[in-house]
Structures are given as C-alpha cells and as structure tokens.
Design goal:
By secondary structure, the chain is α/β, with parallel strands linked by helices. 45% of the residues lie in helices and 11% in strands. The chain has 13 helices and seven strands. Strand 6, helix 11 and strand 7 form a beta-alpha-beta unit.
Length: 315
C-alpha cells in the first residue's frame, strides 16, 4: 500500500512540476511576443507571473472616464438634435487616435447632435448587452434616434474568449462572457472555485483559444456561433426597447465575414437595419492610407465613413 501511495505521489509531483514548467514557458513566450510587437499592457512589461484574477466589472456611474483613458467623453452635448449612441470596440473608441479623430466626434460635430460613445478596446457585442441591462445606463444615455453597433469580423471570437490579447492573458483579466441557459443569456461569473482555478492556467487559456479558433468558429459550425452572436443583439435590443420607444437600431459591418448575407437576413428579421461599409463608401478602407500602422482605422477612414453614414441615415 505504501508503495502504491509513493508511486502516486511521485507521479503527481512530476505532473505538478511539468505543469509549472509549461506555465513558465507560456508566460515567457507571451511576454517575449509582446516585446517583439512593442506592446505594454497597462504600461507594464514584463507582466508578472500570475498576478491574480481580475473579473470583469464596470460601474456605469464612472464610465466613461476619459481622464484615465477609460472610454471617450460624449460629444456634442450642446446640440439640440436627438442623440445617437454608438457601441463597439477599439474601432469606435479610436485606438491611438485623438478624440477629434474618432468616429463619434466626427458624427457629433458634422451632424450637429450629441453622440454617446459606449465602446472600448477589446470589447464586443456582449459589452453592449452588459451595459443596456443596467438601469444606470439609462441615467447617463437619454433616448437616442439611433443606436448603432459597429461590427468587425473578430467580434464572433470575442464573445467566446476567456481573454482578449496577451496582456489580458498574462494579467489574468477575465473577458466578459455569457452562456445560453433556458433560452436567455446569463453572465458567466466564474463562481466555481475548481473551474476558476483551472481557467487561471496560461496553458489552458491558450488551448481554449485554439479550440475557439479551430472548432467553435469553423465554417461547419456557423449556425451555432451565429445564433449565439445573434442572441446578444436580440437581447440587447429588447433591453433598450424597455426604456426607449422610438429608437432605430443599426448594425454597421466594417468589414466582411463568413456568411454575412445570411447573418444580415437574421438581423433584419429582428428589426435591425444593416449597413455594409464597403458598399456604403467609394474608398477601399483596406488600403494602408486608411489605417494606422497596426491596422486600426485612422482619421481619414472615419472622415469618409462619417460623411457616408450621415447621408445614409439622414442625420
């Protein structure tokens, strides 16, 4: 019996040491990848080894907070036309752009109406749902004429991912995620201590990323992942309609993605107007002249887009 117990103990020790080595390897590789791409997450490099889990949480009374780089201020509050609210990710936020170079700034001052930016880096459709489910959101955002979501192809992946980029992974920042339960989206809270411990592993996170990219988002699984994404839009719209009776809902595709025509039909069936940006503007926004070096849209792109959107929506 002692011999069996000793063998088990030795094997467990080997597994523990092996797991620790793998964790250290992933930690080192991800930090080196960030260095190669000149990335500093929250101004820090290298990111310490397992600094502690940070669950997703926003107090909407303190968002946006532009002074701390946490969202963009509302533009055009002195204008009298009905407002617009715009949701999305770093595209809408205006990554590495000054505030007067962003889409929300340009829409506000060209259309002469208030524009509320409810976007941030790494966000996706679930971050719109998170906000509009809270009463605090409606204290800060009055009923708009249009609620616009600017979508790009990576937003499908982000609704599943435990973390977004290397900085999130290494800093143990949990991405906001939902799961479908009894036909309704329920926020994943990481309340199970066993699963929570497993999900801390850098290696597990990398395996999860590979699973999402190669299994969940493969074309053969389109019906499942598109239905999941669609549910985020539907429930977001339902929440907003509880408070706003006259708002119109728009989804703007910044770029193309697999089966977008099919996804468009589903959105339209559920009361969204869908605009495909490459058909709206004459310019090819994939050209380098419309991007900052890392590929995000630059001011020139948003100038063209804002003009076209104002004309399309009669703003």
């Amino acid at each position: 019996m002692k011999r069996i117990f000793g063998i088990i103990l030795i094997n467990l020790s080997v597994l523990f040491v092996l797991a620790f080595i793998i964790e250290g390897f992933v930690w080192g590789c991800e930090n080196l990848r960030m260095k190669a791409h000149h990335e500093k997450y929250m101004g820090v490099w290298p990111i310490p080894f397992h600094p502690g889990v940070k669950s997703f949480n926003i107090d909407l009374d303190y968002y946006p907070n532009p002074k701390e780089g946490w969202g963009r201020a509302t533009e055009g509050l002195n204008y009298k036309k009905p407002p617009i609210v715009v949701f999305g990710c770093s595209f809408v936020y205006g990554y590495l752009l000054d505030k007067n170079q962003t889409i929300t700034y340009k829409l506000a001052h060209k259309a002469k109406r208030p524009v509320y930016s409810r976007a941030f880096q790494g966000w996706s459709i679930q971050h719109m749902l998170y906000q509009v489910r809270q009463d605090k959101f409606y204290k800060h955002v009055p009923e708009p004429e249009y609620a616009v979501y600017i979508m790009m192809f990576d937003h499908f992946r982000r609704i599943y991912s435990i973390n977004f980029l290397s900085g999130h992974l290494l800093n143990e920042e949990r991405n906001l995620r939902y799961k479908l339960k009894d036909g309704k989206l329920i926020q994943i809270t990481d309340s199970n201590p066993i699963f929570n411990f497993i999900k801390r592993s850098y290696a597990v996170n990398k395996l999860h990323q590979a699973y999402i990219n190669n299994i969940v988002l493969k074309p053969a699984n389109y019906d499942n992942y598109s239905k999941f994404a669609l549910e985020h839009f539907i429930e977001s719209k339902q929440e907003m309609q509880k408070h706003w009776k006259n708002t119109k809902y728009v989804v703007l595709y910044y770029n193309s993605f697999y089966n977008q025509e099919k996804f468009t039909k589903e959105l339209e069936k559920n009361g969204f107007e869908v605009i495909y940006l490459p058909e709206l503007v004459q310019a090819d926004l994939d050209e380098e002249q419309y991007k900052i070096p890392d590929g995000h849209p630059n001011e020139k792109a948003w100038d063209i887009i804002s003009d076209a959107l104002i004309k399309k929506l009669k703003l």
